[in-house]
Amino acid sequence: MKITVVGAGAVGATTADNIARKELCEELVLLDIKEGIAEGKALDMTQTAALLGFDTRITGSTNDYSKTKGSDVVVITSGLPRKPGMTREELIGTNANIVKNVANSVLEHSPDAILVIVSNPMDTMTYLTLQATGLPKNRIIGMGGALDSARFKCYLSLALGCSPNDLNAIVIGGHGDTTMIPLIRYATWNSVPVTNFLSAEQQKQIVADTMVGGATLTKLIGTSAWYAPGAAGAALVESVVRDEKRLFSCCVSLNGEYGQKDICLGVPVVLGKNGWEKIVDYKLNEEEQTLFGKSADAVRNMNNVLKTL
Ligand SMILES: NC(=O)c1ccc[n+]([C@@H]2O[C@H](COP(=O)([O-])OP(=O)(O)OC[C@H]3O[C@@H](n4cnc5c(N)ncnc54)[C@H](O)[C@@H]3O)[C@@H](O)[C@H]2O)c1
Fold this sequence. Notes:
Layout: E1 2-6, H1 10-21, E2 27-32, H2 37-46, H3 49-52, E3 57-62, E4 73-76, H4 92-109, E5 114-117, H5 122-133, E6 140-142, H6 145-160, E7 167-168, E8 171-173, E9 180-182, E10 188-189, E11 192-193, H7 200-211, H8 213-221, H9 227-241, E12 246-255, E13 261-272, E14 275-279, H10 286-305
Helix pairs in contact: 1-9, 4-5, 5-10, 6-7, 6-9
Bound molecules: nicotinamide-adenine-dinucleotide.
């Protein structure tokens, strides 16, 4: 098994670190356009192997895609992160070009790879990758919902005073401050609806905190977060390479599911060796379906910006 992570910045390096610690592959390649950064971080991570006890071979490359040849999975994190006060959508101009070129360069050397798209605005970058590469839709997975769902569980666990591991909770829709939809009605604490334990006010606050989860961190840190994004990216990769069939909220191409077409948006999917293998229908109620429609409208507007670039 060989995995490549493109972009050796904060999120890419953390994704790679998690992949190595979990020994998801024999060979892991980090690639970046900035001279030396991928080689340096790969060597630094390699020096943790004797301490952490993994055997994954990690190498770095400055923009030489021949080193990525034969990758089974490629995670794309290259591009600008947002700064405090910015929305993810403001990154589109720069990141669209980067993601398109990176995806095509990757496929020249790994035509069978499954791509995990992380760069923002992620829903539009996933759609762009699908359009630009013509790959079968199941091989393009946008990472956003897995992170947003982990943040949702974090805020739920803080309010309930419980372990996040005992929670089941999912965020669908777009990966944007105003487009994501934390499905609190379906969230459970070891099978019991969390709504049994939380006041309406608390529920509202948890949903609001989840939606601006990324912006809260960007404000605190001064740039976009990386620990949870890196862990979320690696979790998706793990389900694919180990064929685990885990269910995650991922941004995938919709063809009528959840009432939408010609768009990539976050929905519950099963991840396995073929990429995303199945979309699961959660039977949204009217209010949730309306929110999903609004989310799709906003993402579609962003996708339309691609035509002007
Ligand atoms: N989908 C999500 O849930 C999620 C979460 C966090 C961050 N992000 C996004 O991930 C991206 C990376 O964030 P970060 O914090 O790691 O940023 P960063 O600036 O730390 O790293 C980005 C890296 O990409 C590299 N890069 C730029 N152009 C490249 C190219 N053409 N080829 C190869 N490498 C290139 C840069 O040199 C840099 O090292 C951003 O777009 C950010 O908004 C997404």
